[in-house]
Design goal:
Layout: H1 2-30, H2 57-60, E1 92-93, E2 98-101, E3 111-117, H3 121-133, E4 137-144, E5 147-153, E6 158-164, E7 169-174, H4 181-184, E8 186-187, E9 197-200, E10 209-213, E11 219-223, H5 231-240, E12 250-256, H6 266-274, E13 279-281, E14 283-285, H7 299-314, E15 319-321, E16 328-332, E17 334-340, H8 346-350, E18 363-368, E19 371-375, H9 389-393, H10 396-399, E20 403-405, H11 415-421, E21 427-429, H12 434-439, H13 444-452, E22 457-458, E23 464-469, E24 472-477
Parallel strand pairs: 8-16, 11-12, 12-13, 12-14, 14-15, 19-20, 20-21, 21-22
Antiparallel strand pairs: 1-3, 2-3, 3-7, 4-5, 5-6, 6-7, 9-10, 9-23, 10-11, 16-17, 17-18, 18-19, 23-24
Helix pairs in contact: 5-6
């Protein structure tokens, strides 16, 4: 009996030790262990980033991001779907998330947006403070008239949010596709002998192609024209304006595309692909909406996908930015202040109320050498004219410019906006020939032409150069 009791005690002691050891190993493993970041959720991927990018607001809810560290409990509320961001306090959260589209290429990573209605500036400012309380740092803040814009990040997550007083609304965009703003932007201080030149490049056809030659020798390209652009002629034109040492590549500091229609990028895309070994493409920027917005299987969509794939394949280290309303981008001598992007009307696109892809064009004010150029892309009425989003939140003080690109090659009748630009506007750029812009168009093109006069209107029949000398715009023909 004594021996039995002794063996039983030894057995129990051994079992107890084994249990304690197993528990210790379990705790060590659950706390991360060596080589595992205890601040993550065991490497679990972000559900929003692995969802079907075709999801609309109804299905996007189930794929809302959820990568919050276990030890941090973020404030939430009914209807709030961003589990890795503190909930906005105040206003009325509109049900569901809105899919705002991809970045450089179509992938599992996409942007989503919450909309908060019936809110105010005080609540917007309070949200900035709340983000800071939970470790987010301001990357960018701006005020344009009665609207506020902010970009915050914590090193892993980026949130862009903006308040429009007219609509009493805040849009909150979780942006996992863009690079940090400080990495993307750079500025120059050109000397007195160094001139920045803007070229309205003429290719005798329809489509948008604007070039700007920075004082550091690099190029900014806005859009890129149709497939029929003589890309070798374009290449030689850019080379002729650039002093390159032997073996040096031609730098494109930024290629910015307003929207994905095939008269706005294939020309430049073909040139870049053909001469990619001689070109350093440093940055690209576009804000295309969710993929179902442009007709699936259409030539427009196929061209867009081919362009994005080409950039990603040939320039894997290129910097990408998805611009949002209110964002300011500085690249070389160029400053771009965005006044509209497709997120501002995303509900209408996703619900198919807007079926015209032209109104997904990003709109911005470009500045160089102290002068401003209004670039509306192909935006149309309902977006840009009286009663449209931009004219509701901005006034003449924001739209005033020295040079205007006439919207949609002169086809759109958005005279309410154009009337805000007179009389300060000096030149109008028609991304079309005279015959197509004025000869066949009795709408806004003819009105702009008659208002400004032939000497101040530039058509794609020719290439025009614009420089600023002693504070005045000097235009020459190439």
């Amino acid at each position: 009996m004594k021996s039995f009791r002794f063996c039983t005690v030894k057995t129990l002691a051994f079992l107890l030790a084994a249990i304690l050891l197993a528990g210790a190993l379990f705790c060590f493993a659950s706390c991360g262990g060596e080589g595992t970041d205890p601040g993550t959720s065991g490497g679990t991927s972000d559900p929003a980033d692995t969802s079907d990018p075709a999801d609309t607001s109804d299905t996007a809810e189930s794929s809302a991001p959820d990568t919050t560290a276990a030890e941090v409990v973020l404030p939430t509320r009914d209807g709030w779907k961003f589990n890795d961001l503190p909930a906005y306090v105040g206003g009325e959260i509109k049900p569901g998330l809105l899919n705002c589209g991809h970045g450089l290429i179509e992938s599992s990573t996409t942007c989503y947006m919450h909309t908060v209605n019936n809110t105010n500036l005080t609540e917007f400012e309070a949200y900035k403070s709340l983000l800071a309380e939970y470790g987010f740092v301001s990357e960018y803040e701006a005020t344009v008239e009665n609207n506020r814009f902010a970009l915050f990040s914590n090193g892993k997550k980026r949130v862009y949010f903006y308040y429009t007083r007219f609509y009493k609304q805040v849009n909150i965009i979780r942006d996992p596709v863009s690079c940090p703003l400080d990495n993307f932007c750079y500025t120059l201080n050109p000397g007195t002998t160094e001139k920045t030149t803007l070229y309205a490049y003429g290719f005798n056809g329809t489509g948008q192609l604007i070039l700007l030659h920075n004082s550091d020798g690099s190029w900014f390209i806005n859009d890129g024209g149709v497939k029929t652009v003589d890309t070798e002629k374009l290449w030689q034109f850019m080379l002729s304006k650039t002093e390159l040492a032997e073996g040096e590549k031609l730098r494109i500091s930024l290629w910015y595309i307003t929207h994905g229609h095939s008269d706005h990028f294939p020309g430049a895309a073909k040139m870049i692909e053909t001469h990619h070994e001689q070109i350093a493409l440093e940055r690209v920027m576009w804000n295309f909406p969710e993929k179902s917005v442009i007709a699936p299987g259409s030539s427009q969509r196929n061209d867009q996908l081919a362009m994005q794939s080409m950039v990603n394949r040939l320039y894997p280290d290129v910097l990408y930015m998805k611009p949002h309303n209110g964002m300011k981008i500085n690249v070389g001598d160029v400053e771009l202040q965005f006044l509209y992007t497709q997120e501002d009307n995303i509900e209408k696109f996703l619900s198919k109320e807007y079926t015209d892809y032209n109104s997904s064009s990003a709109v911005c004010m470009l500045k160089f050498s102290g002068k401003s150029v209004f670039l509306p892309g192909d935006c149309k009425m309902g977006t840009i004219d009286k009663g449209g989003f931009m004219c509701n939140i901005y006034s003449k003080s924001t739209f005033g410019c020295d040079i205007m690109q006439v919207s949609h090659h002169g086809y759109n009748k958005i005279n309410t906006l154009y009337n805000l630009l007179y009389p300060a506007m000096e030149y109008a750029l028609f991304e079309n020939t005279y015959a197509e812009s004025v000869g066949k168009n009795s709408g806004s093109s003819a009105e702009v032409y008659n208002r400004l006069g032939a000497e101040r209107c530039c058509f794609s029949d020719k290439t025009y150069a614009f420089t600023v000398i002693d504070g005045k715009i000097v235009r020459t023909e190439e």
